[in-house]
TrEMBL record:
GO terms for biological process: creatine biosynthetic process. Gene3D superfamilies: L-arginine/glycine Amidinotransferase, Chain A. GO terms for molecular function: glycine amidinotransferase activity; protein serine/threonine kinase activity. This is Serine/threonine protein kinase. It comes from the Bacteria.
Length: 371
């Protein structure tokens, strides 16, 4: 038993794969609302996702776990909670929680440290509890493991810009992109907030996206908490920035997959190129939109899980992405996973690497600009 993972590509030895059981369409809160009237959830309503969808998602998650185990990778699974229960702190009450499928949102492994993120949705404040039995078992088994939890946020109304969603959604797409680039997003800077899925790990360098779930204070906290790393704040031209792993995906040393529909800042591109990295535009997704009851984007096509520098798992129906990665020299493992999207994401979202071989390396020795 060893907790150690420094990047997104070293050979994977141990991973958590999420579960779909009990996942909820979230009740309204300052950070999020859902409005899916055609699927039975008009704005203001909430409840469990349909049983047939849950069964289909669990079947694909179970099959994915078997694929990984067949390649000699240890797979652990979380313990779902009763996500339909209301939760509360002394300062707010939330009628429901969310789920335990997208493990990557809540936890991140950085070297021998397993870090619990703050989370910025009230419905996800207690989600770490679904994973605590596993974390506790790792802590008992690995004396070198560091177990850390970022400061639990208060998530009072002061953490959110009042009336954000109604005003933001009324804007034309180009203005939403401009506001996102300027940092005029949902969260205030009242307290540090970040989702773990906004972190792309490249050894000594961590690239953290400022998003609807991650604010500057959260990035500052990570920078101060991890002084041995270079923590970079990055922004993309995305009207709805939410998690970096469907926008900027390191595949192996020297190669990163980029969603051209969400252009990176010129300074970030220059930094990667100055360090001899190739930035490749991801292939066009097969589908025009995510499936019903999903808050994800069609760019889950590039939400891949790298097993080692030469092997990558890709959603089985995303043939253009499969062909592109094959042409780049990867063995591609097609994994049917589209039914999982309504439960919180794709192959990368659904997993958390606990152990990858290798150590911390400096893949960006040339410093450029603010990097």
């Amino acid at each position: 038993m060893k907790v150690s993972s420094w990047n997104e590509w070293d050979p994977l030895k141990h991973v958590i794969v999420g579960r779909a059981d009990g996942t909820m369409v979230q009740a309204p809160e300052p950070a999020v609302f859902r409005d899916w009237p055609r699927e039975g959830f008009p704005r203001g309503t909430y409840g469990p996702l349909p049983a047939d969808m849950t069964d289909a998602a669990n079947a694909q998650l179970d099959a994915f776990a078997r694929v990984l185990e067949g390649r000699g990778i240890r797979v652990d699974r979380p313990r779902p909670l009763d996500f339909g229960r209301p939760v509360a702190t002394p300062e707010w009450t939330q009628p429901s929680m969310f789920g335990a499928m997208p493990v990557r949102d809540v936890l991140v492994t950085i070297g021998n440290e397993l870090l619990e993120a703050t989370m910025s949705f009230r419905s996800r404040w207690f989600e770490y509890l679904a994973h605590r039995p596993l974390i506790e078992s790792y802590f008992r088994a690995d004396p070198a493991m560091r177990w850390e939890a970022a400061p639990k946020p208060r998530l009072t109304d002061a953490s959110y810009h009042e009336g954000f969603w109604d005003a933001y959604d009324a804007l034309p797409p180009e203005e939403r992109v401009a506001r996102a680039v300027r940092g005029e997003l949902l969260l205030t800077e009242a307290e540090p907030l970040f989702d773990a899925a906004d972190i792309a790990r490249c050894g000594k360098d961590l690239f953290v996206q400022r998003s609807l779930a991650t604010n500057r204070a959260g990035i500052r906290w990570l920078r101060q908490h991890l002084p041995q790393h270079r923590v970079h704040e990055v922004v993309f031209g995305n009207a709805h920035p939410m998690h970096i792993d469907a926008t900027w995906v390191p595949l192996r040393p020297g190669l990163v997959l980029h969603c051209a529909e969400r252009p990176a800042e010129a300074e970030l591109l220059d930094h990667f190129k100055a360090n001899d990295w190739q930035v490749v535009q991801a292939a066009e997704p097969r589908r025009a939109a995510a499936p019903p009851l999903s808050a994800c984007s069609r760019w889950l096509s590039m939400n891949v899980l790298v097993l080692d520098p030469g092997t990558v798992c890709v959603e089985a129906s995303e043939t253009a992405q499969i062909e592109q990665l094959g042409a780049l020299g990867f063995e591609v493992v097609p994994v049917p996973f589209w039914d999982v999207a309504p439960f919180g994401g794709g192959l990368h979202c659904a997993t958390l690497d606990i152990h990858r071989e290798g150590g911390m390396e400096d893949w960006f020795p040339r410093r450029t600009g603010s990097f």
